[in-house]
Amino acid sequence: MENNEILDSGVFDQSNSKAEVYEYASTGKRFANYIIDRIVLLILIFICGMLYAVAFPENGEMSTLTSYLIGYSVLILYYTILESTTGKTIGKMITGTRVLNDDNSVASTGTIFKRSLCRIIPLEPLSFLGGNNGWHDSITYTQVVND
């Protein structure tokens, strides 16, 4: 294959001058990522809720709005921080997968933030029933590949 063909295919890594070809992560790995990350998120949200209760004991019971704000904030921060710094969440680290742009380049922090926001779209997890990519992939032009 000539250099022009490699460049045109969108899989040319200029940092080490060799072509990188990635295989899409299987649906099973994507599902495992989802389950593992949900467990981690539940633990983090629980910890944040407990910290809130300790910091504001006079409030008594936490309001529904406050619980949603804590939950969604933790979710967005979890995915944005981990995926923008390492390209992986805890689930992706365990399953050996990572997030890349559709052209196989490393996704920017802005793209990862948008990807994280897309995760709060109602019924978004069901978007995987139609194929290997969910809405948070297709909207942000990202993909999950085997590492």
Mind explaining what this structure looks like?
The protein has 147 residues and is mainly alpha-helical. It has one domain (26-146). The protein has 6 helices and 4 strands; from the N terminus they run αββαααβααβ. It has helices at 3-8, 27-55, 64-86, 90-95, 109-118, 135-138; strands spanning 12-13, 18-19, 97-101, 142-146. The strands form 2 sheets. A two-stranded antiparallel ribbon has the order 1-2. Helix 2 packs across helix 3 and helix 3 (64-86) packs antiparallel against helix 5. The longest helix is centred in the N-terminal third of the chain and has 29 residues, at 27-55. The model is unreliable at 1-18 (pLDDT under 50).
Topology record:
Blueprint: H1 3-8, E1 12-13, E2 18-19, H2 27-55, H3 64-86, H4 90-95, E3 97-101, H5 109-118, H6 135-138, E4 142-146
Antiparallel strand pairs: 1-2, 3-4
Rg from Cα: 18 Å
Q: How many E-type strands?
A: 4
Low-confidence stretches: 1-18
Per DSSP, what share of the residues sits in E-state strands of 2 or more residues? 5-15%
Helix-strand sequence: HEEHHHEHHE
Side by side, the strands of the main sheet go 1-2
Report the sheet with the most strands, covering strand number, pairing sense and barrel closure: 2 strands, antiparallel
Shape designation: elongated
Number of helices: 6
Helix content: 40-55%
Structural class: mainly alpha
The first-to-last residue Cα distance is: 24 Å
**Total domains:** 1
- Report the average pLDDT across residues: 87
